[in-house]
């Protein structure tokens, strides 16, 4: 089993990492609700805090609709410090990229320095344990995993990677996302040179003596950046960013509506261990070389499903009328039998109407197909539509 190293405080934070659900050597789950490094910062600015992924997080400041539209037109600052930041290194010449390829279906070994890739942590049966971002840095392979699954991810990675691969859980780092068409204007004033990054590229920067790791990426469909910063400096950076005229703090509510419009799945809702990459319409994450080698977890099932087609498939839905359908609504056939399920749904501020993601039988997955939904005794009609619902505006 691989070793996990923690760089954060050696008291509660380290204990949290040593005793998480899924850790074969741990003896307790992570604490129920934790605080972000910017907890007091959010509360001082009127953030309404809710529990999410085991953390107190701001769901909104001035309102989801206003924050959503502000981000689409200007720049929004999101605190995503609940997510797990991991750094993989090898001892004695061991290659962490090659080691990770046993668990991920992407071409990790082929990443150049500063290049990043979306990938999936897979179970032995080909189910998705998490979706994540992987980047090659000069000091190792950097990975960002979902906050709700990070302790289980650490347990799975530790159990399935060899002893010569060290996992550094960077729990001393905060993570901020600056998203929107004017994000580059605001960040370039503070950190000259970031405008040279293009989508899915990353680099190290120095801001007033504070080391930053910045990628041009995000979860809104807009241009933007994700910034790893020492937790001790997170408030200082957040202050500097929100002092820029283009930037406002944005909560979880708008983050969810933005990612839904962008057609981006949310783990634990649109993806889970019973979902394969083919069912989830994430075939782009299966790189050509890895498909040919077929040596990643779950490869036999996934590649057979890719060849024969999945039984169900994730699709986008434009819902008729004004009433949004929510997660859990049933997709029904002509006889009223449940044949699929809505996994994300809500009002689209940009389109001013209801949209959703659902898993439907493959025969119903073609764009333009009519779908019937049942929610709380009411029937809704919807049309399968290509995603994203709102075009991506990444800076390529």
UniProtKB/TrEMBL annotation:
Its EC number is 2.1.2.10. It comes from the Bacteria. It holds the Pfam family GCV_T_C. Substrate binds at residue 226. Residues 1-32 are annotated as: Disordered. It is an enzyme of class 2 (transferase). Gene3D superfamilies: Aminomethyltransferase beta-barrel domains (3.30.70.1400), Aminomethyltransferase fragment (4.10.1250.10), Probable tRNA modification gtpase trme, domain 1 (3.30.1360.120). Transmembrane segments: none annotated. It catalyses: N(6)-[(R)-S(8)-aminomethyldihydrolipoyl]-L-lysyl-[protein] + (6S)-5,6,7,8-tetrahydrofolate = N(6)-[(R)-dihydrolipoyl]-L-lysyl-[protein] + (6R)-5,10-methylene-5,6,7,8-tetrahydrofolate + NH4(+). GO terms for molecular function: aminomethyltransferase activity; methyltransferase activity; transaminase activity. GO terms for biological process: glycine catabolic process; methylation. Residues 39-288 form the GCVT N-terminal domain. One of its GO terms (cellular component) is glycine cleavage complex. SUPFAM superfamilies: Aminomethyltransferase beta-barrel domain (SSF101790), Folate-binding domain (SSF103025). Keywords: Aminotransferase, Methyltransferase, Transferase. Residues 313-390 form the Aminomethyltransferase C-terminal domain. Belongs to the GcvT family. This is aminomethyltransferase. It comes from Sphingomonas gilva.
């Amino acid at each position: 089993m691989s070793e996990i190293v923690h760089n954060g405080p050696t008291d509660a934070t380290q204990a949290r990492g040593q005793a998480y659900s899924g850790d074969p050597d741990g003896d307790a789950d992570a604490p129920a609700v934790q605080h972000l490094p910017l907890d007091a910062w959010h509360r001082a600015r009127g953030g309404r805090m809710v529990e999410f992924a085991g953390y107190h997080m701001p769901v909104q400041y001035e309102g989801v609709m206003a924050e959503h539209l502000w981000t689409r037109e200007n720049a929004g600052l999101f605190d995503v410090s609940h997510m797990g930041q991991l750094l993989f290194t090898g001892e004695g010449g061991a290659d962490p990229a090659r080691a990770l390829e046993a668990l991920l279906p992407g071409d990790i070994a082929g990443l150049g320095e500063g290049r990043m890739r979306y990938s999936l942590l897979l179970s032995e049966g080909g189910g998705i344990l998490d979706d994540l971002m992987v980047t090659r840095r000069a000091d190792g392979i950097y990975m960002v995993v979902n906050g709700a699954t990070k302790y289980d991810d650490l347990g799975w990675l530790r159990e399935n990677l060899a002893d010569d691969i060290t996992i550094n859980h960077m729990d001393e780092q905060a993570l901020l996302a600056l998203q929107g068409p004017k994000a580059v204007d605001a960040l370039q004033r503070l950190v000259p040179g970031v405008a040279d990054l293009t989508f899915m590229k990353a680099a190290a920067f120095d801001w007033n003596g504070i080391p930053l790791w910045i990628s041009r990426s995000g979860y809104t469909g807009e241009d933007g950046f994700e910034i790893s910063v020492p937790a001790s400096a997170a408030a200082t950076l957040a202050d500097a960013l929100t002092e820029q005229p283009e930037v406002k703090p944005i909560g979880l509510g708008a983050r969810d509506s933005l990612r839904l419009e962008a057609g981006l799945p949310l783990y634990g809702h649109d993806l889970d261990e019973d979902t394969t990459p083919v069912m989830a319409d994430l075939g782009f994450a299966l790189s050509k070389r890895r498909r040919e080698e077929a040596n990643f977890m779950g490869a036999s099932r996934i590649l057979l499903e890719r060849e024969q087609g999945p039984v169900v498939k994730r699709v986008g839905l434009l819902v008729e009328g004004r009433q949004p359908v929510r997660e859990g609504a049933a997709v029904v056939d002509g006889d009223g039998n449940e044949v699929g399920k809505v996994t994300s749904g809500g009002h689209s501020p940009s389109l001013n109407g209801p949209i959703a993601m659902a898993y439907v039988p493959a025969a119903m997955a073609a764009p333009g197909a009519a779908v019937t939904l049942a929610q709380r005794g009411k029937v809704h009609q919807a049309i399968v539509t290509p995603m994203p619902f709102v075009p991506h505006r990444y800076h390529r």
